[in-house]
Design goal:
globular, 13% strand, 54% helix, Rossmann fold, single chain, six-stranded mixed sheet, 8 helices
Length: 187
Amino acid sequence: MVITLIGYRGSGKSSIAPRLARRLDWHWIDSDRVIEQQAGCSIRTIFESEGEAGFRQRESAVLEELLQQDRLVLASGGGAVLLEENRVRMKAAGPVVWLHTSIEGLTKRLSRDRAGGENRPSLTGHPIAEEVAEVMAIREPLYRECASIIVDSEREWPEQVARRIARQVGLAPGDLNSDATDAGGNR
């Protein structure tokens, strides 16, 4: 089984994945790091040289490989849900957890993350607040469609979110916490 974390850049996937993996005694991988290691350059450089289509091809190939593993927590790239084949593979591999964060929360986090801005390409060329709103308008329905679990990752520390996810996927003792919902919006 693979637990795939999805959500916009800055939603906490790379912070929560290692904590969740440690809690479950699984291993974890950040798919963007794998793509960069295989390419020998940053995602920004891949976008500059191959365009978004080239990057998405690389991403899909990496996801196909990673989603065949077992006992893996996968921090996927924010745009991994754009291709239907990726969404199908994620859902087939195990629970897909959308780390939901408001547009305002994402904008604050991304504005503070200088390193992420240097390594990540702008997707629209607009200021960060506009970009997040524009891109989320496209991605939010895809995150919602793909997710088997939706967890608010804005108001709690990564360790708390990891504990909540472990409970939701039924791999940790404890009651369902009322702040997590299933993909249908049920608590």
